[in-house]
Amino acid sequence: MIPYFTTAETIADLEGILVLQGINLATRLEQEEIRSQGFVTVEHTLEMLRSLNEQERHIIAKLGDQIIGYVLAMTKKSRAEVPVLLQMFEEFDAVPFMGKPVSAYNYIVAGQVCVAKPFRGTGILDGCYQFYRERYAQKYDFLITEIARANTRSLNAHHRIGFRHVHSYTDSGHTEWEVVVWHWKG
């Protein structure tokens, strides 16, 4: 079987995202695995994912029926959907980008990214992001996200793909974040 990229269309797709997310939550990993493999921070509910997916479809990588990677989609309208991410959206409002605050642009947010461990380093993340760009570049100016500074694997992968650092901040829980943008128009 060959992996393929598509959008989340069914409850089974959303449940598959939640399974992969659950395996990779920082709260469930050992420190060595966090350091070497990366992690995800936010734990979504099925209802949250469904609501977000109704605004813009999440991008998924599948092998047969198994979700082996995903990039969640969030819009400005999504800011209240996942309360723990409200501070991220507030930071975005103030971040300058090309002479204007990010809030002045029509942007989309990579709400979370994850690739199943056996498929890391095989191009799945790149494929997910290429599909994301193909789907959303005509509608949005750029893709923005934040990555925990401690998640060096994810930071390196995002920079390799073409994301550029635009801002850093420390949240109320003392986590240091890097805000990165993949600019599609220019």
Written description of the protein model:
There is one protein chain. The protein has helices at about 10-25, 30-35, 45-55, 85-95, 125-135, 150-160; strands spanning about 5, 60-65, 65-75, 95, 100, 105-115, 140-150, 165-170, 175-185. With about 190 residues, the chain is an alpha+beta fold. It has a single domain (about 5-185), classed as Aminopeptidase (3-Layer(aba) Sandwich), CATH 3.40.630.30. A hairpin with a 2-residue loop joins strand 2 (about 60-65) and strand 3 (about 65-75). The radius of gyration is 15 Å and the shape is globular.
Give the SSE layout.
Layout: E1 4-7, H1 11-23, H2 31-37, H3 46-55, E2 59-63, E3 66-74, H4 86-94, E4 96-97, E5 100-101, E6 107-115, H5 124-136, E7 142-148, H6 152-161, E8 164-170, E9 176-183
Parallel strand pairs: 6-7
Antiparallel strand pairs: 1-2, 2-3, 3-6, 4-5, 7-9, 8-9
Which key phrases capture this entry?
186 residues, two-stranded antiparallel sheet, single chain, globular, 9 strands, 33% helix, alpha+beta, 6 helices, 7-stranded mixed beta sheet, Aminopeptidase
